[in-house]
Amino acid sequence: MVFEAFSWLRLFLFFTSIACFFIVSLSVFVLRLKPWCSCEICQSFLSSRWSLEFSNLCDWYSHLLLKSETGTIRVHVLGNIITANPENVEYMLKTRFDNYPKGKTFSAILGDLLGKGIFNVDGHLWKFQRKMACLELGNLSAKSYAFEIAVSEIRSRLIPLLSSVAGKENGVLDLQDVFQRFSFDSICKFSFGQDPGCLKLSLPVSEFAVAFDLASKLSADRALTVSPLIWKIKRFFNLGSEKKLKEAIKSVNILAEELIKQKRNMDVSSHEDLLSRFMATIDDDKFLRDIVISFLLAGRDTIASSLTTFFWLLSNHPDVTLAIREESDHIMGSKTQDLASFEQLREMHYLQAAVHESMRLFPPVQFDSKFCQEDDILPDGTFVAKGTRVTYHPYAMGRMETIWGPDCLEFKPERWLQDGIFKQVNPFKYPVFQAGVRVCLGKEMALVEMKTVALSLIRQFDIQMANPNQTLKFMPGLTATVKNGLPVFVEERNR
């Protein structure tokens, strides 16, 4: 009986200490974020008043940043400085890179899913993976392998799928879902050397894809909570969304670990997938899992998001579609079934311009945050206290007149051309692939894949929106995903 009383006392003291910790931590959080702030921005955010005028939070932020003289705003209740000033972006991503790491807050949010993968770490772990990735992704064989995978997936699955619904009276296809399936198949082949078969004509459900999608969504939802204490407490007690996240990550881990185990029993020296390449120098299976899952996250959703918004823009700009077809016919000939070679793609400057222009208006990653390590002052004069979250906003930057001129809201591929030749702009004006020290290593492979997919569909099909008046409303997440998808009608082209 004494033992039972002692056990109850220990349990009581445990929960009391948890409650006290929660109250103290919440008090510190409240004091730091100033939820009582009466400024217009904070009040509009807290009351969701912004949603009366704007469909997307990113559009509201763009509006505020456009009105700001410095291109920078503060959201006090979030402890967040948001900027669309290219000088600030360069300062964060290049000049004072070491003072603006991802930080422990960001790493904690995605840590259960990404572990110690390259997109979730700073310091020596990041430098080590960055160096390895440069060696593996930068060589010609990796680029050729990625291109071969994309071409094979387009020829054997993507085009047959669209042909199967073309011209049918009720043949509505969710193009966003199709692109997500395509990119998941492609990145799994490239990362693991395995084919989940998501884009087969039957559009099967992949256990791995479902678990991965759920884990990605629930991890992103953590960033939307008022305080990180909320999701941490739910995780501690294994409740609600955190319980679902744990189960989804467990499924991802089981499948990833099984793939790694299979690879360990094979001679990987002749294999070209990313996992086999990394296994040649890394023995830690947990670390391998973290690295490959990170690349899977980056390579899947960004490609699908970019292609979805690109085809939405094309539906509203038939002149751009026509110009792409004319350019490709000039370089490739008029046979619609032909797929462009790597060399032919390099000659298509207008296509390159159109893809860049699409991502200027609709970047797949709409914003990215860093956490200031030491007190600092941004080039525009904004003071940044230690521990402050600083967010640069590519979505808003694409809508800044000071950067792109008075026609910044227009979809104009021509702005990227000089005498018909594609011309890059300052990457800190266009940080769609990040810039500076952390610039995306897979940028060129991603662009080639996007252009190959886009061109193959533009040449062979006429694609029209099922709802011509559809506007883009984005769901919260790590990448820009269109709510309710992108339903389309497909017709084979008549030549």
TrEMBL record:
Q: Which residues are noted in the entry as heme-binding?
A: C440
Q: Which domain of life is it from?
A: Eukaryota
Q: Does the keyword Metal-binding apply?
A: yes
User: CDD domains per the record?
Assistant: CYP86A (cd11064)
Entry-linked SUPFAM superfamilies: Cytochrome P450
Q: Which cofactors does the annotated protein need, by name?
A: heme
Q: Which InterPro entries does the UniProt entry name for this protein?
A: Cyt_P450, Cyt_P450_E_grp-I, Cyt_P450_sf
Q: GO terms for molecular function, please?
A: heme binding; iron ion binding; monooxygenase activity; oxidoreductase activity, acting on paired donors, with incorporation or reduction of molecular oxygen
Q: Where are the transmembrane segments?
A: 12-33
Q: Keywords in UniProt for this one?
A: Heme, Iron, Membrane, Metal-binding, Oxidoreductase, Transmembrane, Transmembrane helix
Q: Where in the cell is it found?
A: Membrane
Family designation:
Belongs to the cytochrome P450 family.
Designated name of the protein: Cytochrome P450
Organismal lineage: Eukaryota, Viridiplantae, Streptophyta, Embryophyta, Tracheophyta
